[in-house]
Amino acid sequence: MLPPHSLLPSRMLIRSLLVAGVTSHPLLLTPGLSILNFLSKPRGPLFNMERNRILHTILKNLLYNHFCAGENAREVKATIQNIKNMGFRGVILTYAKETSGKSSSEKDLSNDESKGVDSETMAWHQGVLQTVRMIGDGDFLALKLTGAGEAVTTALSSGKPLPEQMESALLDVCDEAISRHVNVFLDAEQHHVQPGIDEVALNLMRRYNRGGVAVVFNTYQGYLKSTPRILLDHLHKAREEQFVIGIKLVRGAYMSTEPRHLIQDTKEGTDISYDSIAEGLIQGKYADWTQDEAFNSPKLELFLATHNLPSTLKAQQLQKSRMHAQLPLIRIQYGQLLGMADEVSLTLLQMNREDTSGKRFAATEVYKCLTWGTLNDCIFYLLRRANENKDAVTRTLAEYRALKREVLRRMTNIFSS
Ligand SMILES: Cc1cc2nc3c(=O)[nH]c(=O)nc-3n(C[C@H](O)[C@H](O)[C@H](O)COP(=O)(O)OP(=O)(O)OC[C@H]3O[C@@H](n4cnc5c(N)ncnc54)[C@H](O)[C@@H]3O)c2cc1C
């Protein structure tokens, strides 16, 4: 059987090898991060990525194209097509420019309070509409609500209703998504805004997840001690009010800024929490529900957003064994970020190629999560990805070795034919 990385087109393989070569070696990564940090601050023409075309070309070809989807609709659509050609079910698209980027004084000038128009929310609304119009059937639009600016963030963290402008922007975006057969993720953020985001998500799910399928998904962070309880509460609400609950399960991305006591004490604790939530949902006996009650459990769809191979394989194997035992199945989809954890994505894709059962939910639906925006818009996103690779050094090294083996395999094939 061919290795998972055999699915990578040659150009992507070489670029991935270069990036993994740098990110898996601390001696190369540390100066690389310093350079990226330096370029992320406003600079004169020589070190300005948008004005210095040579710098722009180097960064774009080596780094940006590995992690990001494109600077405009044409580039984004080409990247999406390449990804779908590899066998991915679709993409999750998000816009890098999360706020309007204006200073407070600029905001004051452009906010027309007498008309209740907030310029940050307006810019977010336009950016998100532009994003959803680049995707289609079966893809996901990812929304970061605090990106809509200060007024929205304040409402989310104080438990107040969203400003009317944001309420109507959200409905407009969801209607546009539905008309394009696109699903919507509400991303999970820091704990002080999360109860507000949960409320918004529940309201959208009540409204849009009615036709037996989930259109809107809320995100649940496995690293938070409170998540099993909150998720159980939402499952009860979905059952009582008869809407489909869309669950995107992540481990959680805000460890460095969240109060430590809210988070599982160890990485192993987070892993156990993540896997047991996934297992309970797949088996229809989540927390206080017994197997006998499975019949009454709410209709749910599960999206496992993770780079962790053991978690992914556990869920996939559980689904498979339930399928063979003719037990009820739920829809499970999987997603990883573009440029990261290709071993996970490609292993899942390869399993798909082997599965010929054709049964409902038998196919493994795998997605890549893409961020789009200009090089300048994406620079902080690129920095976060580079830092994440530094934290996951064992995984990055394993990825580098797998890529090197695949390059050697292809070269041997060429020379022996
Ligand atoms: C498609 C996609 C969408 C995402 N959307 C969101 C989102 O909306 N909101 C969000 O918050 N994150 C999101 N993430 C990021 C995610 O939460 C994780 O930070 C990231 O995927 C790394 O976790 P992992 O499951 O891939 O596995 P691993 O790399 O195995 O796990 C790393 C994670 O484990 C946890 N961890 C690490 N050390 C410890 C410790 N000492 N104690 C306790 N826990 C620890 C942290 O959550 C850390 O991120 C998304 C990820 C993907 C792939």
Can you walk me through this structure?
- The protein contains 15 helices and eight strands.
- The chain has 417 residues and is α/β, with parallel strands linked by helices.
- It has one domain (71-389): TIM Barrel.
- It has an eight-stranded parallel β-barrel with strand order 1-2-3-4-5-6-7-8, surrounded by eight helices.
- Helix 1 crosses helix 3 and helix 2 (26-40) packs antiparallel against helix 14 (375-391).
- The model is unreliable at 99-109 (pLDDT under 50).
- The structure holds flavin-adenine dinucleotide.
- Residues 92, 187-188, 219, 221, 223, 250-255, 263-264, 266-267, 269-270, 305-308, 335-337, 369, 392 line the site of flavin-adenine dinucleotide.
If strands are numbered along the chain, what order do they take across the biggest sheet? 1-2-3-4-5-6-7-8
Helical fraction equals 40-55%
| CATH class label | Alpha Beta
Mean pLDDT: 90
Bound molecules: flavin-adenine dinucleotide
Sheet having the most strands = 8 strands, parallel, barrel
Radius of gyration, CA atoms, in whole angstroms: 22 Å
Can you name the CATH architecture? Alpha-Beta Barrel
**Percentage of β-strand residues:** 5-15%
Helix tally equals 15
If you consult CATH, what is the topology?
A: TIM Barrel
Class inferred from helices and paired strands: alpha/beta
Number of strands: 8
Oligomer: single chain
Question: Can you tell me the residue ranges where pLDDT is under 50 for at least 5 consecutive residues?
Answer: 99-109
Overall geometry comes to globular
What's the number of domains?
Answer: 1
Terminal CA distance:
19 Å
